[in-house]
Amino acid sequence: MSRLKLLAALAALTLIPATPAAADSIAYVKGGNVFLTTPDGARTVQVTSSGIYSSVSQADDGTMIALAPGERLHKLSRDGTVLADFLTPISDGAPQSGPINKFHGPFNPQISPDGTKVAYEYFNDSYEDAPGCSETTVPPCFVYRQSQGVLVSDTTGYTGYERYGLMTGWIWPIWMDNETLLRSDPGAIMADDAAFTKLGGPVDPWFWDSNQGLGVIAMELSRDLKTAIGIAGFYDEKLRVYRTTMHPYGAPDWDHTPFTTKENVPTLEQCYELPGGKFVSTSMAPSGKAFAYGTADGVYVTTIPDNCAPGGPGTLLAAGAKSPDWGPADVPTPAAGPSPQPTPQTAGPAVSKLKLKLARRKGGVRATLTTGAPGRATFKLGAKRKTAEVGRSGKVSVTFKVRKGKRVTVKATFAGRTVSAKLKV
Q1: Chain CA centroid to CA 302, Å
Q2: For the chain, first and last CA: distance in Å?
Q3: What is the mean pLDDT of residues 392-404?
Q4: Which of 5, 8, 179, 383 has its Cα between 20 and 30 A from that of 79?
Q5: H/E run at residue 155
Q6: What is the pTM of this model?
Q7: Contact between 82 and 28 (Cβ < 8 Å)
Q8: By percentage, how much of the chain surpasses pLDDT 90?
Q9: Cβ contacts of residue 120 below 8 Å, gap of 6+?
Q10: Structure-model confidence comparison of residues 148 and 14, the more confident one
Q11: Cis peptide bond N-terminal to 113, omega within 30
């Protein structure tokens, strides 16, 4: 080959966009089943056949966590074997109507890189008494409050919330390492769009997008801390790609005070934006050079150009799929078909015999439930319903307001079992 032809060939090679590492895989859910595929779609393996899952994420070694019915989490191997099946502290049953304190979740479970922990979202509705407004006033009334946040459990089984703490505010958890989470969407005004939280440590606000100030959700930061992605817009119709302008940890906080005289310094610079109907989720490639995202059409894959140059929407990888999660583990060798999944072994609380005792108190009755294990208990007195967290002591109490002289029956439910007790107040 002549020198001129060789130079031309080398020049042409430089125009070929960088492709993700061949050993990577993207996990996703389609038709209630978990699939694994290479980023180019050349090899795809159906992992499960039960049709029960709604989201999935994968650790660096390929271990997966999937959201199952009944507010349960399943830890899965690459061949679909259920390694653990467990409840969470917020798994308190189906929604109930009326003024009932209620948790919703877990949602969007994300397994840590080493596969030992899982972070997930929760939402909480609470109804509280206030001066001149309670369940005994005429008419009865309550003060309604809603909150949100993230909890973390071990992937071996049920884990009480006190082990890693209650992380309120930001949701959309993403593991930066095995001890640090990036979270976005604070659910409040005058707060950054994204923040870091070290397990057991304080919140480190990180980024606020001043472009229209509509908020950014589903944010991810590449492992080399150089590139970020997130969903923005009134209707989640914008997917933005950024590059960092400084080291993200310990970056200067944004002053959200109106008419502030402080000169705020952006921690990210927007490179480009993908328009669309509605973006649902994102997942950054381990290399930081590409990402997957979900829409109503399915899961797409696209590369990120160098030097903050604008990129395109990429290609549709899996039509009708959702919940993409890009990891460094390879796609396993396809079997003849999805292997039958064994009956999972429940790893919920080890419950001894439930004991419920009622005692009179001024203005009502106190119900004390002994479980012998931590978890979440539900108490019901007529139309009144309360939920409570059972700690390591294996015992919890709640109170109900009851008029004197009335005979009451209280029912308590824990880990799928119900007991009742009666008392004349």
Answers
A1: 23
A2: 99
A3: 80
A4: 179
A5: none
A6: 0.75
A7: no
A8: 59
A9: 73, 88, 105, 106, 107, 108, 109, 110, 150, 151, 152, 153, 173
A10: 148
A11: no
pLDDT, averaged across the chain: 87
CB 294 within 8 A of CB 281: yes
Average pLDDT over residues 309-331: 97
Six token digits for residue 391: 């700690």
Tokens in use for 265? 């310094």
Could you tell me which of 46, 83, 45 has the C-alpha nearest to residue 64? Answer: 83
Q: What is the pLDDT of residue 22?
A: 55
Task: Give the Cα separation of 310 and 305 in Å (integer).
Answer: 7
Q: What letter does residue 346 receive in the DSSP assignment? A: B
- Rounded Cα–Cα distance for residues 27 and 46 (Å): 10
Give the bridge partners for 364, in sequence order: 361, 401
Q: Specify the residue for token string 């328009």.
A: 275
Are the CB atoms for 57 and 40 separated by under 8 Å?
no
Q: Is the pLDDT of residue 164 over 70?
A: yes
pLDDT confidence tier of residue 14, bands split at 50, 70 and 90: very low
- CB neighbour class for 346 (10 Å; exposed up to 12, middle 13-18, buried from 19): middle
Is residue 416 classed exposed, middle or buried when 0-12, 13-18 and 19+ CB atoms within 10 A define those classes? Answer: exposed
Cα distance between residue 365 and residue 382, in whole Å: 13
Placement of tokens 């696209």 in the chain: 302
Sheet of 407-414: strands edge to edge? 384-390, 375-381, 407-414, 417-424
Q: Locate tokens 């959201």: which residue?
A: 67
| Cβ–Cβ under 8 Å, residues 63 and 73 | no
